[in-house]
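User: quick one, fold this
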Amino acid sequence: LTLGKGVQPEEQKFRASGSLTALAVDKFLGNTKVEQGAIDFVADRSQIKMSGTGQAFGAPAKLDVVKVGQDVGALTLTAVIDDAARAKLNFNSGPRIRGPLTLKLKAPLDKSGADVEIDLAKTTMESFGGPPWKSAGKPGKATLQIKPGPDGVQVNNLVIEAGTLNARGSALFANEGALKSLKLAPLRMSAADDLRLDLDGGERPKLTLRG
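Assistant:
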């Protein structure tokens, strides 16, 4: 650490390392919290890096934060969401999903939204009475972008590729997790399908399917 008259900012060089415990981040994505964080960090003039574990979406999660220079920085969160965690989050709308799914979420630290990847390899996705669209052990994934807003959490650029189920579209979830609307076009539940789906949620959901 250079001291004295005429010292320039670039001459101030430092490095710090340490750990944080019981870390909590309120509303890092909609009403979702990160809790019980145990984080190790390293910082210098050019960047800050953090890595550790915590609780998010009702499940243990791995947390990584990187902030370089004047960039906003981003949090990358990886968690395995099982049936019990999804029930706590009230994610019980739409096709029935059984088994754990792996969620990887990258969110800027300004809380403006997130890019999400979901690995569905270990899940079974049941159909409406017929054979499952996708069985556990077979590849499957979903990608989407999330943007919190006053009416809830908006999901854009939704892409699902899971066995015979393939879809693209958007959705809106209430802040407590309930599905408010869903639009899928195209929607394919078998190779020959060419469908469009519109769902309005609420106490008496309305479903429109064309194709």
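User: anything notable?
Assistant: The mean pLDDT is 89.
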